Amino acid sequence: MRINKVIVERPQHMWMRVAIGIHGKDMEKVHETYDLMSKK
User: Fold this and answer.
1) What is the distance in angstroms between the CA of the first residue and the CA of the last residue of the chain?
2) What pLDDT does 9 receive?
């Protein structure tokens, strides 16, 4: 995410956003996916 051409999103936020986008409200799957992606 950028504001005025400056990156303002941390990798952890991106992984969480992606996990929520994939699994929606299934928080167990969101958590599992976030953990797997953030450890790579």
Assistant:
1) 21
2) 85
Q: pLDDT tens digits, residue range 1-40?
A: 778 888 888 889 999 999 999 999 999 999 999 999 998 6
Angle, in degrees to the nearest 10, between helices 11-23 and 27-38: 140
Residue 14: DSSP 8-state: H
Question: How far apart (Å, rounded) are the C-alpha atoms in residues 23 and 33?
Answer: 9
- What is the DSSP secondary structure assignment for residue 3, as one 8-state letter? E
3-state secondary structure of 40: coil
In a domain, 1, yes or no: no
Q: Print the domain residue range for 23.
A: 9-38
**Domains contained in the chain, number:** 1
Question: pTM of the predicted model, to two decimals?
Answer: 0.75
